[in-house]
Structure to design on (449 residues):
């Protein structure tokens, strides 16, 4: 493979989700995006920028229809569109529609409107680009997600399940977000998978919206819940004559602590009493809900998840593409918001991640307190080039400070021991003609502690 200035170089980004009602219109990374586009404007490479779906959050515009949504975009982000025009004067910019901006495939006028800003809109599910003697397959990836799959992509009247969630939940969150004590509700679009939304809402209510006096009154009880549960059970055994509690020994230890000991004793007694009542009521309620859950499962009411995040559908789709077109070196997609590289039979499955804020769940150190969701940014562009050792995939990180200091309270830091996320991007990977050199699943930023 040659390494000359004429060799094509592809920069790929996806899942910017720009736009939406009210607070969703705020772009946290606009400064970084403009700087990235300015850099491409001056490159001497034979480069092409590919925006691989969900550039815009058109689903989240619920008060505007059709191409009128484009007017809202250009009015809100004039600097962005002028920079697209300037960058597009220097290098080709190709835009593929995703599910959130599927309107782009539904109205031909979008093609000419975007062409005014030197953006080539391709109203297709996928595109192929040459790289040396090989090719790259690009698609957004929503077709592999049953809840966001279109039977007739480009039909403005088709609305998969994911549309209703975003129109009814995400958009509404953008409209209500600034009513809270803090402007956090708009970040619901950063919660993936969506099954985590209830836990996230509980967390933000407890740490952000709850009356502070009530929150600090409840924290000791929730922290000591498990200890109190054990005390309540032992007290029940003591009353039943099955086991005798070492009350005198415990009291002697607490007496040595003075006022602190008295406070601990009081808390344990109150907590144990409350916990005992909860256990008495909770145990039968648990079995009732468990039986209801089994009944629901038998009828298959919730057979599918709201969001499909696992990599398996994309591995299968990539294998099909590689089998149908053996010259394909890379299957490049987005949609799941997780930057990763996976080697498949000597070829690469590449996910371009997202420019949205990402939320990482951290459980508290003890008790029944809600988990904490640490925010971070992992802005990146995937660079695919024809290198001497093969087709190379490199993640170029765009620096942006994480918002943890502003969005995570001292209480949340204390209860999670400050375990902030340290996201990293995949290493350089290469597709060679002989032996694959990429490692399996390089996404080391799993949303687990």
């Amino acid at each position: 493979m040659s390494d000359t200035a004429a060799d094509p170089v592809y920069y790929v980004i996806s899942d910017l989700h720009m736009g939406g009602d009210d607070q969703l219109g705020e772009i946290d990374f606009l400064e970084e995006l403009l700087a990235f586009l300015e850099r491409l404007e001056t490159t001497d490479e034979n480069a092409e920028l590919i925006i691989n779906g969900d550039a815009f959050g058109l689903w989240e515009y619920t008060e505007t229809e059709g191409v009128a949504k484009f007017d809202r975009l250009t009015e809100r982000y004039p600097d962005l569109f002028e920079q697209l025009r300037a960058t597009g004067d220097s290098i080709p910019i190709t835009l593929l529609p995703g599910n959130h901006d599927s309107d782009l495939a539904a109205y031909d006028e979008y093609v000419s409107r975007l062409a005014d800003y030197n953006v080539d809109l391709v109203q297709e599910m996928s595109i192929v680009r040459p790289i040396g003697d090989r090719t790259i397959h690009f698609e957004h990836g929503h077709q592999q997600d049953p809840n966001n799959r279109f039977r007739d992509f480009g039909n403005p009247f088709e609305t998969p399940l994911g549309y209703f969630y975003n129109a009814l939940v995400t958009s509404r969150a953008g409209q209500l977000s600034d009513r809270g004590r803090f402007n956090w509700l708009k970040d619901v679009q950063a919660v993936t998978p969506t099954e985590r939304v209830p836990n996230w809402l509980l967390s933000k209510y407890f740490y952000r919206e709850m009356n502070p006096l009530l929150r600090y009154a409840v924290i000791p009880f929730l922290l000591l819940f498990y200890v109190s549960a054990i005390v309540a059970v032992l007290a029940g055994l003591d009353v039943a004559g099955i086991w005798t509690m070492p009350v005198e020994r415990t009291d002697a230890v607490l007496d040595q602590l003075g006022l602190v000991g008295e406070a601990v004793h009081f808390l344990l007694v109150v907590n144990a009493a409350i916990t005992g009542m909860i256990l008495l009521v909770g145990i039968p309620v648990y079995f009732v809900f468990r039986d209801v859950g089994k009944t629901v499962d038998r009828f298959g009411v919730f057979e599918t998840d709201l969001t499909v995040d696992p990599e398996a559908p994309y591995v299968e789709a990539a294998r099909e593409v590689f089998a149908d077109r053996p010259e394909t070196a890379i299957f490049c997609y987005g949609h799941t918001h997780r930057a990763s590289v996976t080697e498949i039979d000597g070829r690469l499955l590449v996910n371009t991640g997202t420019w949205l804020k990402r939320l990482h769940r951290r459980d508290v150190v003890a008790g029944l307190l809600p988990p904490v969701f640490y925010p971070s940014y992992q802005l990146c562009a995937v660079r695919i080039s024809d290198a001497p050792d093969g087709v190379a995939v490199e993640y170029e990180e765009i620096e942006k400070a994480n918002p943890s200091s502003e969005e995570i309270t001292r209480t949340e830091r204390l209860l999670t021991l400050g375990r902030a996320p340290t996201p990293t991007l995949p290493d350089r990977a290469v597709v060679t003609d002989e032996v694959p050199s990429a490692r399996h699943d390089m996404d080391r930023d799993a949303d687990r502690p």
Notes: The chain has two domains: 8-209+305-431, 224-299.
